[in-house]
Amino acid sequence: MKTLYLVRHGETLFNQQNKIQGWCDAPLTEKGIQQALTVKNYFAKRQLTFDKAYSSTSERARDTLALITDQPSTCLKDLREWHFGRLEGENERINPPLPYNDFFVSYGGESQTAFQQRAIEICQKIMQKDGEQILIVSHGAFCGRFREYWQTHSLTERKVATIDNCCIFIYQFEAEIFHLTEIISHQEQLLALKK
């Protein structure tokens, strides 16, 4: 059985400013850098190593991955966040209530179905390759839509209302199915390091 560690990137300037951030990008804040280093320390304390490491091509994900591990890694476009079209960089208050469905299509963005399918397919493709323990650094909506799709196979009852920066989702991958086994928030990482 293979294990996927799916991590959201650290806090960015646009996260701080409450701006819509899909394919557009913003640098990590100092807090975001510290969050990534906390993930690094969390994995180190558990002596976790990865056979392969991946991130989206977005700077915020690449930089987060580089802070977590210095091992060779691969950047893939299909690991990018939801594309929000012309609403990229706008204030988050113009977002509709969840679920977004096809809201962004009329602005040149992706439909929820197309985005979710992209997330599922790229993660399956990655896990079908060599390696038992895989690290992927991606994005909040990516983690959310991926989790939602595999919810019926979840091995944990835990739910999170929001996906914090540097939240870790741990999945077991077997027979082409992802089973969510654990969700670890940034706060829990910090508490675990103090023990």
Automatic annotation (TrEMBL):
TM stretches of this protein: none
Signal peptide start and end residues: none
SMART domains: PGAM
Residue ranges the record marks as coiled coil: none
PANTHER family the record matches: BROAD-SPECIFICITY PHOSPHATASE YOR283W-RELATED, HISTIDINE PHOSPHATASE FAMILY PROTEIN
Protein name in UniProt: Phosphoglycerate mutase family protein
Taxonomic source organism: Enterococcus alishanensis
Source organism phylogeny: Bacteria, Bacillati, Bacillota, Bacilli, Lactobacillales
